[in-house]
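Record type: monomer structure entry
Structure origin: computed from sequence
Chain ID: A
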Amino acid sequence: MEALDPDLLKTFLAFVDSGSLAQAAIRVGRSPSAVTAQMQRLEEIVGEPLLAPQGRGRGLTPAGEDLVGHARRILAAHREAWLALKGARAAGRVAIGTTQDFADSGLPDLLRAFATSHPRVRIELRVGRSAELAQALQAGSLDLAIVMRQAAAPDEVGVLREPMMWMCSGKGLASRQEELPLALLDPYCGFREAALAALDAAGRRYRIAAGSASLAGLRTAVNAGVALTLRTPRFAHSGIVEASRELGLPPVPMAEFAIRLRAGADASAGDLAALLSGNLALSQPPR
């Protein structure tokens, strides 16, 4: 009997949670052809087809549906074993910085797993914007940080790629206007730059109807229907949804985030960085 490779199971669950092989490829950081080859290899090991044509895409076969629960349990056990061996005698402090997107989605479950396996390690969490977190990392007040990526950095230990998405209130905009109302974070913000560049390239008229220094303020403006904004699917909760295609909004690029580890950080910080690099992409909400 051949063992079920955790890497193959991660890709399989990325397909299950995202709904397509193309999105799965983005989540696991591989090419679509590599993901297809991984799925074929997993089917060879299992001895059953796991995916089958479904409409324009592919869906799970009965065997694929059966595998989902097993795959989640295997990966959870694999992660717990790795963490337990790493953290049994670990102590000290780990200071981590993250943007609000990950503080709300994905990071809590992984921090819980880390705290369970590293019970003597003190976690100091800082939530902020990418620029200030990057500065804190360079100054040595943070051990690792999850920040929006502008360019490759020598301290990167992982890169996440997530789709940008136009967002608005589930109740729609409060009023219809000739100029598209935008809610944006104050400069500098990668999402702000991407939104304005896409609208300018499309020749779409817009105005900045709401500005904020924080995601909490941005969320309030969008929830109120004052304006729409550009974020990743992690922002789509508590009344905020993907904007209707009827608005004719232009396409936007992928967002990139880096997991950065300070040179000289303790082993516990490296353990947490490795945990995030291997699992945070799988925490993306389904589209």
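Annotation 1: The radius of gyration is 20 Å.
Annotation 2: Residues 165-252 form a domain with the D-Maltodextrin-Binding Protein; domain 2 fold (CATH 3.40.190.10).
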